[in-house]
Amino acid sequence: MEPTDSGAISVDIGVRMRQLREAQGWSIRELARRSGLSANALSLIERGRTSPSVSTLYKVSAALSVPITSFFETESQQAQVVYRKASERTRVPFTRGIWEGLGGETFVGAVEPFALTLETGAHSGPERIIHAGHEFVICLRGQLEYQVEDEIYLLEPGDTLLFAANLRHRWRNPGPKVTSAVFVLSGFPEGEAPSGWHLASAGAVAES
């Protein structure tokens, strides 16, 4: 994986998990009981000693009754114009990958561009993703395998894919090299943040 720039905003999922847990007034043991996860595993995540898998994030978000995107939110105001330096991107590391916000997380409109850097074997999880709107992806480096319903598409540098996001889909890096791709989600209802499905998806996202 490539190192992040020193000026980037790095979202600490462990810190967000602790904040969401404490907002409920729960101990780690209580969250463990409600999520079905071990208290030791949750403690390691909160202390930044390990990265959560997609399934872990889904279990914790369900226990806390919050959307999975809550783990990746940063405090910022929405704007009609978003200028983002490369060194100032919001970055969320996950197992075998990095999610980078490209301004959509602070934009008022229904469009969310983001970038994924995926090590070999990284994938969006066992469950297919479904969300509102449209999805566009361009592969910049390596290979990105995309399954949309029953069709499989292999994207290589320069290849693109555009489809209705209510079709079941998932992705993975099938190759021996690191993959880089840019995604653009659009046309979703106000208040939704569909990139979260890919995150946790990145929850972000790729499982061991």
SSE layout and pairing:
Elements: E1 9-10, H1 13-23, H2 28-35, H3 39-46, H4 54-64, E2 90-94, E3 97-101, E4 111-118, E5 134-141, E6 144-148, E7 151-155, E8 160-164, E9 169-172, E10 179-186, H5 195-199
Parallel strand pairs: 1-2
Antiparallel strand pairs: 2-3, 3-4, 4-10, 5-8, 5-10, 6-7, 6-9
Describe what you observe in this structure.
The protein has 208 residues and is an alpha+beta fold. It folds into two domains: 9-72, 434 Repressor (Amino-terminal Domain); 86-199, Jelly Rolls (Sandwich), CATH 2.60.120. The chain has five helices and ten strands. It has helices spanning 13-23, 28-35, 39-46, 54-64, 195-199, and strands at residues 9-10, 90-94, 97-101, 111-118, 134-141, 144-148, 151-155, 160-164, 169-172, 179-186. A hairpin with a 2-residue loop joins strand 2 and strand 3.
Comma- or semicolon-separated keywords:
single chain, 208 residues, alpha+beta, 434 Repressor (Amino-terminal Domain), Jelly Rolls, 2 domains, 7-stranded mixed beta sheet, 3-stranded antiparallel beta sheet, 5 helices, 10 strands, 21% helix, disordered N terminus, disordered C terminus
Give the total of beta strands: 10
- Architecture of the largest domain, according to CATH? Sandwich
CATH topology type of the largest domain: Jelly Rolls
Q: How are helices and strands ordered from N to C?
A: EHHHHEEEEEEEEEH
Span of the ends, CA to CA:
15 Å
Q: Report strand %.
A: 25-35%
- The CATH superfamily name of the largest domain is Jelly Rolls
CATH class of the largest domain: Mainly Beta
- Order of strands across the main sheet: 1-2-3-4-10-5-8
In helices, the fraction of residues equals 10-25%
SS class = alpha+beta
User: Helical region count?
Assistant: 5
**Biggest sheet record:** 7 strands, mixed
